[in-house]
Write a structure and sequence with these properties.
elongated; mainly alpha; 57% helix; 171 residues
């Protein structure tokens, strides 16, 4: 998110005129592309005493992050995406050890799980059980073709009505 300097916020608030459509909080937020809209400008206005110093960023409360957003994208998303591409389940205990080695930070398992869920959008879901042979084919049509070839081989051994019913269930 782009943070504006105190002077830029001051200049925007100087344009504010109450009870006008063209210089209202909403109009100023649209004009200056303020993410968060008029509510952000209203909060600035509540803090503002007419000087740029009153709009300076103050330190935030709460514990600082263990990993930056870039670290999460680089070190946590990588192993998860690798597991997804190979059609295997994600084991966060393995992800945590990999993250600890790469970053040198002592990070709890639960924190990595939270980063995966909240920031990366990973959802827990049950997948289809796949054999090792099925996992090596990432393209669904390629794996389906191999199964169809097996059916056709079996087709020569079975009566035609039995092979047709087997073939139609695979489609």
């Amino acid at each position: 998110m782009k943070h504006l300097t105190a002077e830029a916020k001051h200049a925007i608030l100087l344009e504010y005129t109450p009870h006008t459509h063209t210089h209202s909080f909403a109009a100023l937020a649209r004009r200056h592309s303020i993410k968060g809209g008029r509510r952000v400008l209203q909060r600035w206005h509540e803090r503002w005493n007419g000087t740029p110093q009153s709009l300076k960023e103050e330190s935030r409360s709460g514990r600082p992050r263990r990993l930056s957003r870039g670290d999460v994208q680089r070190d946590v998303a990588g192993p998860i995406l690798r597991a997804n591409r190979s059609h295997t389940s994600v084991h966060y205990s393995a992800v945590v050890t990999e993250v600890r080695e790469k970053t040198g930070a002592e990070i709890p398992l639960r924190t990595v799980q939270r980063y995966g869920k909240e920031e990366l959008g990973v959802r827990q879901r049950r997948g289809k059980k796949r054999t090792a042979e099925e996992r090596q084919y990432t393209d669904a049509s390629e794996g389906r073709c191999r199964i169809m070839m097996r059916v056709w081989r079996v087709d020569s051994l079975l009566p035609s009505s039995c092979a047709f019913s087997l073939f139609s269930t695979l489609r």
